Structure formats: structure tokens, C-alpha cells
Amino acid sequence: MITGHTRIYGIVADPIHHVKTPEEMNVHFAAMGHDGVLVPFHVRPPELAGFMDSLRGMQNFAGLIATVPHKTAMLAICDEVVGDAARIGAVNAVRRDPDGRLIGAMLDGRGFVSGLQAEGVSLTDMDACLLGAGGAGAAIAFALAEAGVARLTIVNRSIDKARDLARRVKDTYPATRVDAGLPDTPRRDLIVNATSLGLRADDALPLDDHAFRAGQIVAEAIMEPELTPLLALAYDRGARIHFGRPMLRHQIRLMAQHMGALPPSDESA
Question: Which CATH number fits domain 109-247: 3.40.50.720, 2.40.50.140, 3.40.50.1000, 3.30.1490.20?
């Protein structure tokens, strides 16, 4: 039941049809007994700054989730960021404070790693390959290094962007060997797609080296479709696959906490 007391939350994306956050977060709100509702907003990049500015004066608006392609741009829009969002260079959760200030955080990486660990995957000493150096990719890169992968190779259309991300991760986690390079698919223990390739039916695969093998894990950050062409091909060739939705499920509580939907007594939970 939505009333005049209900707190409003949103998710902003372009396109918007694939997002799963509204159903996940609204179930979470109901389970918590929180009087809030999260709705989708389809906003194109040129209109993002104006849209966000309009939310500052909306007194019953509490927070926003940002996804493709807005995570990187959201960093500059926020008045303040917390955690490692500045190092990552992106924001995916925004809280609106009572004075209209927007406070950002980046939670994709923690959610992705928690999703793998919940399925019994130990990342310690893995040789990992990350496809994509955008907002989600950067968050996952930092989280993989924090989780203890031995080697991380970042593959991106812009090699300079991949090298910049590799440098930032290496500076923070010097024990991990981090480079920009090629997929070299057969040698990897873990391959992660953090690009948007796979959202649309006519998308190309996010890598050219398709030599997947048994014993490796191929994971997605994309949630819809659940079985992307990359995962389908990897599965057919014997690899273990990991869907994108666990990344969201394992950060829902973190998002709710950042946006102020959890009671103060639960903030450390």
C-alpha cells in the first residue's frame, strides 16, 4: 500500500527493461516492514544531470540505484562519495539527505564477490580475467583483488582505460598482479563479463577467444537475459557458469542500508 508517508526510491538506466532491482528491493522492503517503494526511471545520458538535480527538492525521495550506462557519470553528480567509490570511479547507490545533498557509494564489486563466495567459490590465488573497465568492471576489479586473486587481467576496447584501471587496482592491492591484456581464455580460472554486451539479442560476444574449458568459471554481471550468449557458449564447452543476478541479491541489503532504509540499529548487520 502506497500512502503519503511512503518513501520513494528509484533505479535509473538506459535501457530500463532488463533491470531486476525493483522486484528484489521491493520484496526486501516488505520483509523489513519498511514503508518504501522503488520504481524504474528510463533516463538517457544527456538528461541524467537534470534528472538528478530535480530529485534534490523532492522531500519524500530517499535514494536511487544507478546502472548502465550511468554509473561513471553519477560520480561527478554526487556531492559526496563514501567507501572506495572515488578510487573505482563510479557510483551505483545514491542517498538523498534531508538537505538535498546526494551521497554516493559503489557496491557492485562487493555484491559480485559475495555472490561467488555464497556458491562455494574461493577466489584466493585465482588467475582471473575481467572483460570491461567501466563502472561495474572497476568495482569488480577492486573486489577481486581484495578477495585475493593472484592475477587479474583487464580486457577493454580502450587499452588506455584498461591500463588506468589496472594501475589503480595495483596501487591499492600490490600483492595482486594486475595487467591490461588479452583474454587468453584457456589459461584463466575465472572470466567475468562486466560489459553491457549480452543485453541485446544482436550483441556480439564480449571476447573473441572462445576456448572455454572444464574447470574454469565464466561469470556475468548482466541479469537479463539470465543465460547470455557468453554463458551459453561457455556451458556448452564444459565451463561452470555463474549468473548475474546473485550480484544484485547480495548487495540489496547494502543498497538499502546506504539509502537509509534500514533502522540505525541494523546498520552494522
Answer: 3.40.50.720
> Where, residue-wise, is CATH 3.40.50.10860 in the chain?
7-107+251-266
> Bridge-partner residues for 55, per DSSP?
none
Q: How far is Cα 166 from Cα 4, in angstroms, rounded to an integer?
A: 48
Question: Nearest 5°: phi and psi at 58?
Answer: -90, 100
The verdict on whether 71 is a catalytic residue reads yes
Q: For residue range 77-108, what is the model confidence (pLDDT) as tens digits? A: 999 999 889 999 999 999 999 999 999 999 99
Identify residue 115 by its one-letter amino acid code: G
Say which amino acid occupies 67: T
Burial environment of residue 251 by CB neighbours within 10 A (0 to 12, 13 to 18, 19 or more): buried
This prediction's pTM: 0.84
- Return d(Cα 259, Cα 186) in angstroms, integer: 41
Superfamily of segment(s) 7-107+251-266: Leucine Dehydrogenase, chain A, domain 1 (3.40.50.10860)
Longest dimension (CA), the chain: 56
